[in-house]
Specification:
single chain; alpha/beta; six-stranded parallel sheet; 38% helix; 15% strand; globular; binds thiamine diphosphate; binds magnesium ion
């Protein structure tokens, strides 16, 4: 698997000064950075930019939504499956705050989302007159969920700001970036230099001494164990990781965000349930591109007699939860490639442990299959979805279960809201994923609660011909909350029952195919039919209460 390919930028422009509006300057810079899709919702402060986008319609597709939360979720979904930047465009103040949960989710999941937003008139910023959509300290606010935030107030300042924005998006830990431009600046005309070098992907330099030390420890390990996470997804690390794990016959445990980096069909990919059995026996533990936490964000214990090696692109992350004996700040793919080369020079190929890992996985499967009806529905969805299919998860019972069990076969095909646990993320992030990968079937897994956050966007799916398949597991409840109230709070049920629409009528009203299925087998059949059409479809699955998967599996 090769590294993520960034969008092809315009050819290098040394210096090209032209008279143009701020809106045109922004569009020209987006084009230079290869942006061809924007998820946005217009408003008066953005008129100068939308006018320029109108004139650039052949180059940039604008997908407009019914609420700004969808613009950010879609940009995130798009970024996660393509590895390219996802771009959202929202009015300032309420529009930006509507998008904020999506940006916070992208922040949690290291997703390179560029948020373009407006401002009030430049001469009134900070005055507090109460202009339309005015929110004091808007830029400061965005810094809670943006690794970089900047404002341009003249057309000629826009290219520099955009070079910086893309530099941030393409260096270090990828996280959202926000830029804001006032409405008078979008309309103002100025002499703008669109030239200058494009910000390319920047990688930290690899510390070869640390690689050598790590290689020595791994080559001498009796019982090496590897943990991987989301940092592996975009770095094209699959090949080196598999080569290294195979050479050492080291089992690999992938976090939820790391799933798919190696296929679950590989014997060495043993699943999170194997952690308990394998970690105590390990003598050298290699942790790559993951926070290295347990199912309840608990710290995973490493004893002093075990050697911990960590690879992370974020120098803060590398010590946050566990200090490593050997720490390597680097891109996961580059570090693993370097590590493999060194280990290959030191270690002989080891005897296959495939039988041992197959037995371990079979025992895990047995435990998992006892969790019903989640296991049966999960298997039905996997059976209907081709190997390259993309799954976008929500905060719902089936997703909690699937996070542990659902087999994933390819990188960047397994998407979750990460530690932000954002209810309402799934359906629209899945729409963004389908826009980014129109060739792949996209499955959106929702509960009735989460789906209710964004179901107005069914209209967006139909209008923009986004052919994803959306499943809603309907238990007429914020089921997770209700179960906690019933089991842990002595039956104090409050605010957790839901009155839902008739989903078949809803699908009909929005103009898409609707299905209602009551069994795993019927779900599989409906999914297969829906994927064949490549058009948006909504499948309701009425369900009853489900058991807590973590308690059932002894994870919490
Ligand atoms: C934005 C947001 N608000 C509230 C919550 C708290 N929360 C977590 S799960 C849940 C219930 C989800 O209900 P549903 O989507 O129907 O899934 P179910 O548990 O019923 O399968 C709630 C309210 C959250 N995670 N995110
Ligand atoms: Mg529910």
């Amino acid at each position: 698997m090769s590294s993520t390919v960034l969008a092809k930028p315009d050819p290098q422009l040394d210096s090209e000064v032209r008279s143009m509006t701020g809106g045109q300057a922004m569009v020209a810079m987006l084009k230079r950075y290869g942006v061809d899709t924007i998820f946005g919702l217009p408003g008066v402060q953005l008129d100068g930019l939308f006018a320029a986008l109108h004139d650039a319609a052949d180059d940039i597709r604008v997908i407009h939504t019914r609420h700004e939360q969808a613009t950010a979720y879609m940009a995130d979904g798009y970024a996660r499956v393509t590895g390219r930047e996802g771009v959202c465009l929202v009015v300032p103040g309420p529009g930006l705050m509507n998008a904020a949960a999506g940006l916070a989710t992208a922040y949690a999941c290291n997703s390179p989302v560029l948020c373009l937003t407006g401002q009030i008139r430049s001469d009134l910023i900070g005055v507090g007159r109460g202009m339309l959509h005015e929110v004091p300290f808007q830029l400061e606010m965005t810094r809670s969920f943006s690794k970089f935030a900047e404002r341009a107030t003249t057309p000629d300042a826009i290219p520099g700001m955009m070079h910086q924005a893309f530099h941030q998006l393409r260096s270090g830990r990828p996280r959202p970036v926000t830029v804001e431009v006032p409405p008078d600046t979008f309309f103002a005309t100025g002499d703008v230099d669109l030239g200058g070098p494009i910000s390319e992907r920047v990688y930290p330099e690899i510390d070869e001494d640390a690689i050598a030390q790590a290689a020595k420890a791994l080559a001498g390990a009796r019982n090496p164990l590897i943990y991987g996470g989301g940092g592996l997804q975009r770095s094209g690390a699959s090949e080196s990781l598999l080569a290294l794990a195979s050479l050492l016959q080291a089992p690999v445990i992938l976090s939820s965000n790391g799933r798919g980096v190696l296929s679950d069909r590989e014997d060495l990919v043993v699943g999170t349930l194997s952690d308990k059995a394998l970690r105590p026996q390990a003598d050298v533990i290699l942790v790559v591109g993951t926070r290295f936490l347990g199912a309840a964000s608990d710290t995973l214990e490493v004893r002093s007699d075990q050697t911990l090696i960590r690879i992370d692109i974020d120098p803060q992350e590398i010590t946050r939860n566990q200090s490593a004996d050997i720490a390597i700040v680097a891109d996961a793919g580059q570090a693993l490639a370097a590590l493999y080369d060194r280990v290959a020079g030191l270690a002989d190929r080891r005897e296959s442990r495939a039988d041992e890992f197959r037995a371990l996985k079979a025992a895990n499967r047995k435990r998992l299959e006892a969790v019903q009806p989640q296991a049966a529905y999960s298997q039905a969805m996997r059976a209907a979805l081709p190997d390259d299919g993309i799954v976008v998860n929500e905060m719902t019972q089936l997703s909690y279960y699937a996070r542990i069990e659902f087999p994933v076969y390819q990188p960047m095909t397994w998407i979750t809201p990460g530690y932000q646990g954002t209810l309402g993320y799934g359906f629209t992030a899945a729409m963004g994923a389908k826009v980014g990968r129109p060739d792949a079937p996209v499955l959106s897994i929702n509960g009735d609660g989460g789906f209710g956050f964004t179901l107005n966007e069914l209209s967006t799916a139909v209008q923009h011909k986004i052919g994803l398949v959306t499943v809603v597991f309907n238990d007429s409840a914020y089921g997770n909350v209700r179960r906690i109230q019933q089991v842990d709070l002595g039956g104090k049920e409050i605010a957790s029952d839901l009155l839902n629409p008739d989903y078949l009528k809803l699908a009909d009203a929005f103009g898409l195919a609707g299905y209602r299925v009551e069994t795993p087998a019927a779900l599989q059949t409906a999914l297969e039919a829906a994927f064949k059409t490549d058009e948006p479809a909504l499948i309701e699955v009425p369900v009853g209460p489900m058991p807590d998967p973590w308690k059932s599996l002894g994870l919490r």
